[in-house]
Write a structure and sequence with these properties.
Elements lengths: L4 H14 L6 E3 L2 E8 L2 E7 L4 H9 L5 E5 L3 H7 L5 E2 L3 E6 L14 E7 L2 E7 L5 E10 L2 E9 L8 H13 L3 E7 H9 L3 E10 L9
Parallel strand pairs: 3-4, 10-11
Antiparallel strand pairs: 1-2, 2-3, 4-12, 5-12, 6-11, 6-12, 7-8, 8-9, 9-10
């Protein structure tokens, strides 16, 4: 897949649909979603940390507005005034074809599925019915967006993440696949045949920082 604003719009559309939010709109050379949460009012997404992102940042005086770009954290740090806090790095990843062979579900666990907002949610539960791992996938305009994939700490290193990814992959069918990974998740997805497209970094004008220089 070629990284451009169209691809980022596909990712961000799936992210928004999974949360029942409005679809992203194009604005100022990037994308914007009106999130409306107490901890996140809005997010702006750009392909790079160039003039469009910097012009957007210069107009933001409100806290809890997020800037995201497909660049590494150092590039984003250098592009923004020091009032912007840079979060831990993430990675935009893709896969063009279904995963080959399903990973077996470890003994003592079961799969559950549901629909929440626009996402197919799969949970792996333990023998007590407690959620051990969970993740979602949104199908939108020929793209499967994998989202909020997490394994509870007490259930890690048991093969649940691989089993969960294969279960989600079965929902994706023949669609192109996209996700944004943490540094920890990146290694798993690479081992499952996903490819890293680009770093994906976040800045936020946090509480306690002045709204302008």
């Amino acid at each position: 897949m070629h990284l451009n604003l169209d691809l980022l719009e596909r990712w961000l559309s799936g992210w928004s649909l999974a949360r029942g939010l409005p679809l992203p709109q194009r604005e100022g050379g990037g994308l914007v979603v009106e999130v409306g949460w107490p901890e996140q009012l809005r997010r702006h997404v750009f392909v790079d940390a160039g003039a469009a992102l910097q012009a957007c940042a210069a107009q933001i005086l409100q806290h809890r507005v997020f800037l995201k770009a497909a660049v590494d954290v150092e590039t984003l740090r250098h592009a923004l005034p020091t009032r912007w806090a840079i979060e831990r790095p993430r990675y935009l990843m893709s896969r063009a074809t279904p995963m080959a062979q399903a990973a077996p579900l470890p003994a003592g666990y079961a799969l559950q599925s549901a629909i929440e907002h626009g996402a197919h949610i799969i949970r792996i539960v333990d023998a007590d019915g407690q959620t051990a791992a969970t993740g979602g996938v949104v199908l939108h305009q020929g793209t499967a967006i994998f989202d909020r994939i997490e394994t509870a700490p007490a259930h890690r290193r048991k093969g649940l993440a691989s089993a969960l990814m294969h279960a989600l992959d079965a929902v994706a069918g023949d669609a192109d696949r996209l996700l944004v990974a943490t540094a920890e998740g990146r290694a798993l997805y690479l081992s499952l045949g996903w490819q890293e497209l680009a770093p994906y970094s976040t800045a936020v004008l946090a509480e306690g920082q002045p709204g302008d220089d």
